Structure formats: C-alpha cells, structure tokens
C-alpha cells in the first residue's frame, strides 16, 4: 500500500473508534499502521515550535531534580525515509493518535493478579566535583506489591555504578587520573541542575538491598498517598478519571510554589496520568482511561520514532514543564503503541563545564516491567 492510500485509509478512522472502550476495527487499523511505521523509518524534515509550556512541580522520576532555562526558537529534526516511497507531512501519527492507539492496546493486558510488579532502571547525569566532565549514575528498582491482605511485598534496589557519560567525558576523566570515587563539597554550585550527592559516588556497582513492604503500601498519586482500598475507587472512564484527579489536586496547597496555580494543577493532572500508566496498581481499563485523558491534554507533541535509554524502539512524545518561574525542563515520553507500554520518561537539560563546553544532563526512568502477574516472588537475599 502506498503512502497516499495509507493516509486516505487513516482519514476514515474516527477519533470515536479510539476514545470508546471497545477495540473497534478502525482503532485496530490505526494501531496496526502505527506499528508498521515503527518497523520502517521514514525521512522528512519538520519545523517544530515548542508547545505551550505546562507549568508545574518537578516529579521525582529519579534521584535527582533537574531544571534548565529553555528558549522558544524553532527547531528542525530529520527522520530516515522509507526506501522507494515519498511520505507526506501528514503521514506521521500525532501525539493524540499514538496515545489513543496505546489505550486500545493496554486494554488487552491483564486487569488483576496476585502481585503488581514494576521494574525500572533509573539513570541520571551530573558533573564531577570540578565540573570538568559529566558522569552517569544508575540504579535498578524492582517492586512487588501483594494484592492479598496481609501478604508481604518486596522492594529490591541496586546501585549500578558511575561512569563517564560520553567518550569525550571519558577522555577528560582519564586526563584527571581515572578516579573511581567522587566526593562533592556541600556548597557546590549546580545551577539547580542536579542535587549535590550527600555521600561519595563510586564507580563500582553496589550490592542488592531488599526491603519488606507493609501490605497497604501502594504509592502516591497527584500529591497524596494511596492505599489498596483507594486504588479501587480510581475510575476507568476518561472524564470520570479527570474529575477524580482534579478533586485530589484541588486539596493541594500550591500557594508557595511561585507558579500560576491553574497551570500548576494542569501539570499535576498530566503527571497523574503518567503515574497511573506506569506505577499505580490499577486495572487495564483505568490505564487505558489515563492514556485517553492524556491524549486530550494540550502541549504534547509527537516527534517521530526514537530509542529509549535501554535501546528499545518507540514513539517520542515531548512537552515542557516549568519548575520555577521562567525555568523549564523538556520531558520526553517514549511510548510503544503496539503493546500500550510507556517505555521511558527522559528529561534533558544542558550545562556548561569548567572549560566552557556545553554538555547534556539527562535524567531517565525506563520501565522494564509494569503490570499484574500471577508469579510469586522468591524472597530475595541481600
């Protein structure tokens, strides 16, 4: 099928096919199309303007909080072409289409099980104490939340070590004597791009640490803690979910944030959708509702196919969040529509090193496992 016919076929797929609960033929057609586009890259050039900034509070997606001033200049990106075809600008799926297709797919996932399991790899970058090069640190976290009252859950954590972030950083690290331990002064200036480590960083990976969780430990949503009983009240329809989240957000005191409260609440609503998709133990219908609600929110733009920090292919969705007045962070969500999976969440910022070189600082959380399982964890050993 050529690209023109593909576009004409897509035009017959209505949004209602995707926003409804049923996986209709039209929705499945669009889902299949997006999957095929993931397999075969396309080449074209796009002019992109950053979307409306979503103001709000920084989510603790990893161990470090990051902020950076952003400019509003246009940018150009290029995407590889499909051999032998010409693709029009309208052939790329929009952010809304990607999110709605993911909603259709995630509805097919199990809605219950003995345990809610998540496994993530968190990575973050920071400069060395002399600001001569950039380091990347990592941590793996695996959590098993037991659904049965009184049954224990488990939280397994391992530090993955620290290394130079890029070959250029490795060269600077070698020139500095190839240290394997980094100690940071408490008063180090970081421009608020990362938190100063309170303990020395070590190149060597650490041992796994295991923590037993109380039964009713579930997590947080929209600034408030959650119990198992409360998760059952989370709606599985988009508008009802919006009302539920806005009610929780309305109880927050945002007067001290220094940000416009309406915009701050809009950002927390977006964050709530992402958390329901990626961490909160809910049914597949509720996760689908979160995707559909996310698809209705402004400021999210599609930027084509990409790879996540673990090398997996998905669709890139990007938005801005304001951490402090005038300070923005660029956030990328990597989504796999075919499986309804959020693969990763990445924040990218820039800083200047001591020699004047501009360097990227990224914070990422990659989701290896998210969902219900009938498997039972073996109590891990330290």
Q: Explain this structure to me?
A:
This protein is of the alpha+beta class and 382 residues long. It has one domain (105-373). The protein is 25% helix and 32% strand. The protein is built from nine helices and 16 strands. Strands 2, 4, 5, 6, 9, 12, 13, 14, 15 and 16 form a ten-stranded mixed β-sheet that branches. A two-stranded antiparallel sheet has the order 1-3. The chain is globular, with a radius of gyration of 22 Å. The N and C termini lie far apart (55 Å). The model is unreliable at 1-27 and 33-89 (pLDDT under 50).
Count of individual domains: 1
Secondary structure tally, helices: 9
User: Which regions have little confidence, pLDDT < 50, spanning 5+ residues?
Assistant: 1-27, 33-89
- The dominant shape is globular
Radius of gyration: 22 Å
Helical fraction equals 25-40%
Order of helical and strand elements: HHHEEEHEEEHEEEEEHHHHEEEEE
Beta-strand content estimate? 25-35%
The profile of the biggest β sheet is: 10 strands, mixed
Mean pLDDT: 80
Number of strands: 16
Question: Separation of termini?
Answer: 55 Å
Helix-strand category: alpha+beta
Put the structure in a nutshell:
The chain has 382 residues and is an alpha+beta fold. Helix content is 25%, strand content 32%.
Please describe the structure with a list of short key phrases separated by commas or semicolons:
382 residues; alpha+beta; 10-stranded mixed β-sheet; two-stranded antiparallel sheet; 16 strands; 25% helix; globular; disordered N terminus
